[in-house]
Amino acid sequence: MTKREFSHGPAKYQIEVKGRLSPQWKDWFGGIQIESEGDITIMTGGMDQSALHGLLVLLRDLGLPLISIKRVES
């Protein structure tokens, strides 16, 4: 079995939500990249765990259903 090591420091994440956000929301979400494909929005950016949880709260408050969260290698 391979042991996975996780860091609680900053990492790059890709978050997909159902709904369409324009790139103008970039500043409101802390400068992360925002791309829409049909009715799916893909948000990508570096953040620590605290910022990630804060972003998830903002998405919940906007009523955008979460599809996936993926930690991506830099």
Describe this structure in words.
The chain has 74 residues and is α+β, with helices and mostly antiparallel strands. The chain is built from one helix and four strands. The protein has a single domain, classed as YebC, transcriptional regulation domain (Alpha-Beta Plaits, 2-Layer Sandwich). Strand 2 and strand 3 form a beta hairpin. The chain is globular and about 35 Å long. It starts with 10 loop residues before the first strand and ends with a strand.
Radius of gyration: 13 Å
Quote the beta fraction.
35-45%
Strand order of the largest sheet: 2-3-1-4
- SSE order, as H and E? EEEHE
Helices and strands: which structural class? Answer: alpha+beta
Report the average pLDDT across residues. 87
* DSSP helix fraction: 10-25%
As residue ranges, the low-confidence spans are none
CATH architecture: 2-Layer Sandwich
CATH fold name = Alpha-Beta Plaits
CA-based shape: globular
Task: Assign the CATH class.
Answer: Alpha Beta
Give a quick account of the main beta sheet: strands, pairing sense, barrel closure.
4 strands, antiparallel
Number of helices in the DSSP assignment = 1
Q: Can you identify the CATH superfamily? A: YebC, transcriptional regulation domain
Number of domains: 1
Count of DSSP strands: 4
The separation of the N and C termini measures 24 Å
